[in-house]
Amino acid sequence: MSLYDYFENTKGTGILATADSEGNVDVAIYARPHVIEEDTVAFIMNERLSYQNILSNPKAAYIFIEEAPGYKGTRLYLTKTKDETNAELIESMRRKKSNGYTSGDSKKHLVYFRIDKKRALVGD
Prior knowledge:
CATH superfamily: Electron Transport, Fmn-binding Protein, Chain A
Number of helices: 3
Order of helices and strands: HEEEEHEEHE
């Protein structure tokens, strides 16, 4: 199954781990990534701690735990490659549509990551 099909059709919980340039770690619940290519994913990020961390350290890890019996899912090891702030593009990619992106909303970024390594949730 392609990564695109996996994330479009599998329900579960995602967690993004980031660290700043001094190694201070943060973890946050994150939606499924948008699969751009088999080796590239993107997340819509607000200007909060996870986003601040990737500005100083482009490495991150994403874990996805499937809604299934046992321990099923995937781990992605990532490196930030690009950051966009095009509001129309971001709104078009959102899975849950809002009433429209307005300038009063917190600034959002579409952050692209190269997948450096992909591993099963448990074992390999």
